[in-house]
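Posting here for the record, re: S-adenosylmethionine.
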Amino acid sequence: MSPKVLFVCVENSCRSQMAEGFARLHGDNVVEAWSAGSKPSGKINDTAVQVMKERGVDLTRQSSKGLPDLPKVKWDYVFTMGCGDACPTLPAKLREDWAIPDPKNLSTDEFRQVRDQIEKKILDLIREIKGAPHVDQTKEKVKEFVRDRYAKIAGGKKQSCCGTKEDSCCGTKEDSCCGSQNTETCCSDSKSLGYSVEELKDAPEGADLGLGCGNPQAIANLKAGEVVLDLGSGAGIDCFLAAKRVGAQGHVIGIDMTHEMLSKARENAKKGNFPNTEFRLGEIEHLPVADNSVDVIISNCVVNLSPDKPQVFKEAFRVLKSGGRLAISDVVATAALPEDAKKDLALYAGCMAGAVAIPELEAMLASAGFKDVRIQPKDSSREFIRDWAPGRKIEDYVVSANITGRKA
Ligand SMILES: C[S@@+](CC[C@H](N)C(=O)[O-])C[C@H]1O[C@@H](n2cnc3c(N)ncnc32)[C@H](O)[C@@H]1O
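Prediction output follows.
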């Protein structure tokens, strides 16, 4: 049985409602979430409704409840949102105050910051609950390792490509040979992935960390006005290129589970002035995106990193509109990796050991509901994959591929 979690604030109009919404979004089947207010206002705050809608959560489906309206159950967790002395002390196995500031009188942008703070707390909570012994700990460990690696890449001075090398030529303007002013001579990496120099000039400085393994724009056939979702957006390179293509009437959403990457992408969006692009914190296995709301899903070298790929494709199918398209670049296995490589977490986080064979991938996509699935391996990619783990001969086992499909 899922643990029962109660979120409490004073008016039950913003913080606890947002926490309940995120717990349902990210932790459905993991927790049973409720919210209540010690002095309920009877209505849900309009700004909370607006900023949660941006995350694909419809708060209008929830109701504002007071403590006496709650079912008489034993709570496993009670989290108060920062109501200080006004917080009730309800019995529970674990009680904690999250000290979330009350956003009621804040601007919409500040409200969004509080929303993101709550979302992070919920993701941490879900992760912690999933870490309980009955849940597959290996998958969580793998994710933690991957998150840690990309946090370091986002925050570090020296950047490295998708691979295991710590010192590579890809990075931010200040400390590497690749920057938008130098793409022609230096960034053969990005060019060998299929990006044109012209295209790269459209992205803000620092958005291209050289972490991809292809160019999803080349297969996505994006049109003006479309809604695009990028799974594992990193510092935002593909989101910014997509944003130019879909134009002001279109909208681009990047999802990433690594806070440090998200901050970098948001900074880049501000720097480059991309009002049609937003970045959301989340896991691609539990997308913070509404059902049937996206025209095209792109992704660049990310699905291989997920320890639960069938769930990623299930989620991708859920959020696509009918007629929507999947257009991703990713690595696939052309031969079974040696056992020692399969167990090597650095090779996993470096986009190699998590690659699955093409027939297996086809079966996952078909079982999620995708039609017209096409997986085209690119033999030429072995050349740059060789540099990801020099001497390990990984290029004999994995290649980059274009993966497309359609929701009928
Ligand atoms: C190899 S990088 C690719 C980044 C970006 N697509 C690019 O081409 O620059 C992988 C990115 O996916 C994110 N990521 C990995 N696994 C994820 C998951 N399960 N959910 C959400 N993001 C994930 C990482 O944080 C990282 O930013």
